[in-house]
Amino acid sequence: MASTFALHSGVFAGAGAGAGTAARGRIRPRRQTRTQTRTQTRTRTLRVPLPAALVGMGLALVPWMVLLATQGAWPWVGLDVLEATGLVGTGLLLRRGDARSALTASATAALLLTDAWFDVTTSHGAELAQAWVLALLLELPIAALCGRLALRRG
Fold this sequence. Notes:
The chain is mainly α. It has helices spanning 2-9, 21-24, 34-46, 50-70, 74-96, 101-122, 126-153. Helix 4 (50-70) runs antiparallel to helix 5 (74-96), helix 5 packs antiparallel against helix 6 (101-122) and helix 6 runs antiparallel to helix 7. The N and C termini lie far apart (58 Å). The model is unreliable at 3-16 (pLDDT under 50).
């Protein structure tokens, strides 16, 4: 009785008298515009997992530390070891979903800011230009990323 009532009163989508009731009852997925499709495609192709990127950045510092060690710049090697450890540690903690990643991210951001500051203020001549390039293109953006991570996770 209830099903007969529902059919005759039009409660079900597409219910009614006549042909085509099955076609009217289907739910169609929403079509995407070209802009949405292009944006989604571009996002998918450029996306690198953040934990892997942080670990990669930390490991990329190893050759730089070797170069500094051959020149006898041991204080800078020590600072870069701390930065690399912070980047790798943050990446690994993020991968595990550990909330302590906020702590390592904030410490790494502070180390990167300190490194950029001392590189720029202690350099002279051609080294000063190199210090500014490294600070603006590498150290400060990575510090901003780590700071953002620390604020979002904390």
